Amino acid sequence: MSNPSLIEQIDTVVEKLSIAKSVVVFTGAGVSKESGVPTFRDKDGLWQKLKPEELANFNAFLKNPDRVTEWYSHRRKIMNEVQPNPGHYAIAEMEKLFEKFCVITQNVDNLHQRAGTKKIFELHGNLERNYCIKCKKLRDLKGHYSSTAIKCECGGLIRPDVVWFGEFLPQDQYAGAVAAAENCDVFFSVGTSAVVYPAANMPIYARQSGAFVVEVNVDYTELSHYANITLLGKSGEILPMIIKKLRV
Ligand code: BV8
Ligand code: ZN
After folding, report:
1. Which of 84, 119, 197, 225 could crosslink 115 through cysteines, CB 3.0-4.6 Å?
2. Is 189 in the pocket of ligand 1 (CB under 6 A)?
3. What global pTM score does this model have?
């Protein structure tokens, strides 16, 4: 049997969606790639130049707060200069079409919020939020991209409100995401290499609970053998195609 064409695969997904009550969209850095936000593990990704251990962990921050602050300032600057792309907007559109809908994102770039999505579980935090490691006070750094460590009035260091390697995910976000993944009819995994745990458990929980799992990625990933369908292509192109067919 010849491989079904992308259009035939999309028709199958639209069929599943037409009878779905609850839909979840799980996203990674790939959904923001077409906005101009670098991913982590692509050839031109962030981790190609830097090692996650060196930057995205608490000890690295204590050891070299200037270096880590500079890196996150650089990323916050990018995310404030880019716009959501058609993939983010298609996901925001999708939210209006189903009784129950949510996004579970690993991204910290705030682009789903800016595209208008309401129900979002942020598993790895959000770079818009920064706080003092001593008194925990939030610090608004909007428009402020320091290349050296920032101190709080209490003398503590200001850090980004993102989950570093070896840190626990925010319990409420994780628990809410698991419940959503275990109670949905269709689960999309969009633009993620699905290698970071425990976030990468989400598609597995969905599949084990009987959801139809659709992967949208430019490549096959660790998850592909688990998905019911892998739609190969850019999320900024494929997701609007699904919305267009749903609206017919
Ligand atoms: C924890 C926030 C408990 C900060 C991030 C060995 C085995 C298993 C697990 C572990 C292990 N050793 C250590 C662990 C645990 C570790 C982990 O999973 N490590 C992995 C790397 C092996 N996990 C943790 O440490 C987690 N915490 O376990 O706590 C604990 C607590 C105490 C003591 C012990 C245990 C915390 C993990 C969170 C880390 N924080 N980021 C920041 O952003 O700086 S991780 C980082 O990776 C981002 O959050 C990112 O979102 C996430 C996943 O990456 P992706 O989003 O998937 O991005 P990637 O570049 O990888 O892939 C992009 C994809 O898009 C590709 O597939 C590409 O093909 C595709 N794409 C590209 N363009 C497009 C596209 N798709 C569609 N359209 C396009 N246009
Ligand atoms: Zn403080």
Report:
1. 84
2. no
3. 0.96
